[in-house]
Amino acid sequence: MAWRDNLLELKKDLDTALARTMGEPVEEDPETEREREELYQLAASLHIAQMLVDLNEVVLGGAGKVESTSLMDYYDDDDEVLEIADEDADDIDEDEGTLEEGVEIRFSLVWDDVTECAVDVELGKTNGRICMLVNGEEVRQQREVLETAVLDAFRDEMDLE
């Protein structure tokens, strides 16, 4: 009977994955919805999307594109997941140095299709802890710190150091 239960669970996972790729709404548990809303509220309070739009308009003359992605339940072991610097955190996979599961929202400014330049701001929550990363580096959740990190990430992408 366990085999059959495993197959039914696999079918449910497959249906959910297919619904996401087709752009269909996927039922989420109330806790995941609450966590995602908390991340969106933080993003709105820090004006993350507007910051990237401003960077695109002022510095790139509108040549880039700002995107937002919301992901539920992190990827499989082969995909990169949010990395955090706090070595004492209980939610770190010691072998990988990544968060294991949670909700993530990513805002990206992408430009120059040839070199695929991007500045990514990621907000993630797992085990009750929110973290924010700019191009993979964890930063404090303060506007001034975020502004500096975004500018530094842009400079790094453009080799302007």
UniProtKB/TrEMBL annotation:
<protein>
    <submittedName>
        <fullName>Uncharacterized protein</fullName>
    </submittedName>
</protein>
